[in-house]
Amino acid sequence: MDILGVGPLELIFILIIALIVLGPSDMVKAGRTIGRFLRQVVTSSTWRAVTRTSDELKTLPNKLIRDAGLEEDLREIQDVTRNAVPKDINTDLSKWQEDIDSWTTPPTIGKPIPDSDTGDEVISPEPSEEDGSEN
């Protein structure tokens, strides 16, 4: 539930900041003042006109489509686009992902890695203890 783009967590944060800044006694007075103001705004005829207009604007595209008789055309376009996508696209994507992973995944040290050109397994070099490097 967002009120003017402010969610519940942001509202709690604002209340905590207000409590710190105003203190408990002034917080009650400020709450009453804000409540009275919001009641006046919400019950005003201007607010009702704004919300009614907002609702009309949200439904306007559907109303225009219905009035123009384009509902059937819209459904037909949606059916064609659904059928245009191949059913086996997920398997193709997973194959491509595996190919990309083989190129982008760094080799593991000391384990066999398939050579991309020949297909033979190549052992990656293990760090030697002679180097003095520790893991």
Overall description:
With 135 residues, the chain is mainly alpha-helical. It is built from 4 helices and 2 strands. It is flat, with a radius of gyration of 32 Å. The model has no long low-confidence stretch (mean pLDDT 77).
Strand content: under 5%
> What low-confidence regions span 5 or more consecutive residues with pLDDT below 50?
none
- Coarse shape: flat
State the end-to-end CA separation: 50 Å
Helix and strand sequence: HHHHEE
- Average pLDDT rating: 77
Major beta sheet, specifics?
A: 2 strands, antiparallel
Give the strand tally.
2
Radius of gyration: 32 Å
- What is the helix tally? 4
Which structural class fits the helix and strand makeup?
mainly alpha
Strand order in the largest sheet: 1-2
**Percent helix range:** 55-70%
Question: What's a quick, concise take on this entry?
Answer:
The protein is mainly alpha-helical. It is built from four helices and two strands, in the order H-H-H-H-E-E. The model has no long low-confidence stretch (mean pLDDT 77).
Task: Write the topology of this structure.
Elements (H helix, E strand, L loop, with lengths): L7 H36 L1 H24 L2 H14 L4 H16 L7 E3 L6 E3 L12
Antiparallel strand pairs: 1-2
